[in-house]
Write a structure and sequence with these properties.
By secondary structure, this protein is of the alpha/beta class. The protein contains four helices and nine strands.
């Protein structure tokens, strides 16, 4: 199944010049959704993963489905101010400013083997920050997965020390 056929491209969203890759058209198709989850699961099923960490917000959807198939826990990494208990925060640079992500301090155990998941790899900044959080808690990132990768933004370069997989690649905007 060619999953790229299930991705809608929306020009000039959220601003002019951006070609937004909308995954909702894949998610609404039961067969495409199931196929994507199965493919992502097959990439990690033999890794002895203890937890799946998904990044807000679309990383929650497939990340939780992968965790369910693996029969392991799911951990959300969120934007600031969304997690109620004691947390760690990691700040990272954006093209025009800074942002940060947070994780609960009790979400990961020392020595856990972790799969990181997000829907889309662009510049890699958010995933890099999320990996740093997980590693600060003593876990090992054994794999990173994405549904979509925008190869032309070279986000994979920031994640060189990890095993990275994506199901759909775009070589240009």
């Amino acid at each position: 199944m060619d999953l790229k056929n299930y991705i809608r491209t929306v020009p000039d969203f959220p601003k002019k010049g951006i070609m937004f890759r909308d995954i909702t058209t894949l998610l609404k198709d039961g067969n495409a959704f199931r196929y994507a989850v199965d493919e992502l699961y097959n990439l990690c099923k033999n890794k002895e993963i203890a937890k799946v960490v998904g990044i807000e917000s679309r990383g929650f959807i497939l990340g939780a489905a992968i965790a369910n198939k693996l029969r392991v826990g799911f951990i959300p990494v969120r934007k600031p101010g969304k997690l109620p208990a004691e947390k760690l925060s990691e700040t990272y640079s954006l093209e025009y400013g800074i942002d940060s992500v947070e994780i609960h301090k009790d979400a990961i155990q020392d020595g856990d083997l972790v799969l990181m998941h997000d829907d889309l790899l662009a510049t890699g900044g958010t995933m890099e920050a999320a990996c740093k959080l997980v590693e600060k808690l003593g876990a090992k990132v054994v794999q990173i997965s994405f549904l979509i990768e925008l190869n032309f933004l070279k986000g994979r370069d920031r994640l060189k020390k990890y095993e990275v997989h994506s199901l759909i690649q775009y070589d240009s905007e």
